[in-house]
Amino acid sequence: MPLVKLTPDEITKVVAKIRQRYDEYIFKYFKPKTVKFAFEERYAEVLQKRMDISTFLMAEIGAVEELIKREQARIVAGPQAEPEKESLSDRVERIYQQNLEKIHKYPEINIHPTANEEIKRLVGALNALDNEYWPHLSGILRDTSYSRGSMTMVNLESKLRYLGTLGIDRVPGALSRYLYHLNRFPRDYPAIDREEKEYILESAFFLHDLSDILGRVLANYPRLSNDQKQGLREIQQYVNGMIQDFRVKDLKRQK
Prior knowledge:
mainly alpha
C-alpha cells in the first residue's frame, strides 16, 4: 500500500476488506474469533490516539494476508509443518517497523515537532538529492539534450527546489501550507492529511519523471564515458530506491 494518506471513503473500504479477510481466515481455517476482535481493539485504539491510520491499515493488511498464506503453506506441507510462533500483534508491529526501517536511511528534516515522520524523511531524501546528486547530474548531462539549460531540466530543477530546498523556516515551499495547518489550533486534520497527500503525489511525479530521463540518457548516449555512466547509474539507483522505499511505485503521472 502506498504512503499516500487514505480518504475517509478509502479507509471505510479498506477496513471492510480487512474484516472480510479475517472472517475468511476464521471460517476456512477454524480459527477463534478473538483474532478479529483483537483487530477491532487495535483499530479503536488507533482512532482514539489519532495515530497514522493509513500506516496502521497497511500493516494490518500485510498481517492478515501473511496469516492466510501461512495456513495455505501449512496445508500443503501437511501435519509436520512448524507451529505458529509469532502472535498477530507482534506480526503487525514487525511489518510496521519494517516499513519505517526502509526510510531510516534518509536524513530526517525536523520541519515541525508533530510532522509525520515519513514526510520528514521524504523532505530529507529530496534535500539530499538536491545538494549531493544534482550538481553531479548537471555536469554529466552538459553535452546531451538534457543539459541544465534545456526546458525539461529547468522545469525539473525548479520542481526539486520547490520540493526539497529548505526555506527560511527550514521548510520547502511545497510544505508551507502543511506547516500553517500544523501550527493551527484546533487542528484541521483533514487539511493536514490533504497537504501530506499532495506533497507525496508531487514528489512521486517528480521522481518518476527524473527516473525516466535517466533511463533514456543511459540508453541513448552510448558515447558517455564510463565514469559518466557510472555516475548516472548511482543517481538512478538513489532515485529508484526512493520510489521503492517510500512506496510510490504506482503513483505515476497520467500520460
